[in-house]
Amino acid sequence: MKTKILAFLMAAVLGFGTVAAADEVQSLRGKPAVEADTPPPVSNTVEAPRYARNYRQQPPLIPHRIEKYEIDLKVNMCLRCHDWPNNVQENAPMVSVSHFIDREGHKLDKVSSQRWFCVQCHVPQADAKPLVDNSFTPASK
Predict the structure, then answer these.
(1) Domains of the chain with bracketed CATH
(2) What are 76's strand-pairing partners?
(3) Could you tell me if 93 and 87 are in contact, meaning their C-beta atoms sit under 8 angstroms apart?
(4) Does residue 44 contact residue 63 with C-beta atoms inside 8 Å?
């Protein structure tokens, strides 16, 4: 019984001591000014001007980094910003309506499984020097 009372008294003394000492503790940085209206960081901003397409049905290039994007059978991080209605909030282009049609021509409410893996067709744009000479010219519009 004595040990329970002693433990209770020690806990009470230590508890009061931490409350009293909390006012005295300061950060090593001092008291930094924190602005309440700081906007959240932008996750993916367009890093370069978008390149024009060279032919009619060319898939658009991706103008931002995608190294850490997860795209597997259950998750597609591209759709977080580019699927409706998030594309409006994120100011991102919406996935083309052709991505909502299956092989049989049925219109779907979600992206077709044949269009799920975006990087099959879409690649990040890069201002890279061509590996070989290219004489390609786009067809007239």
Answers:
(1) 57-127 (1.10.1130.10)
(2) 71
(3) yes
(4) no
Residue with tokens 């779907």: 108
Phi, psi (rounded to 5 degrees) for 71: -135, 110
Residue 136 or 115, more confident? 115
CB atoms within 10 A of CB 74: 6
Q: Which residues neighbour 93 within 8 Å (Cβ) at sequence distance 6 or greater?
A: 60, 82, 87
Whether the Cβ atoms of residue 87 and residue 81 lie closer than 8 Å to each other: yes
Mind listing the pLDDT tens digit for each residue in 3-33? 878 777 777 777 665 555 556 667 776 776 6
pLDDT band at 41 (very low <50, low <70, confident <90, very high): low
Which residues on adjacent β-strands are paired with residue 107?
101
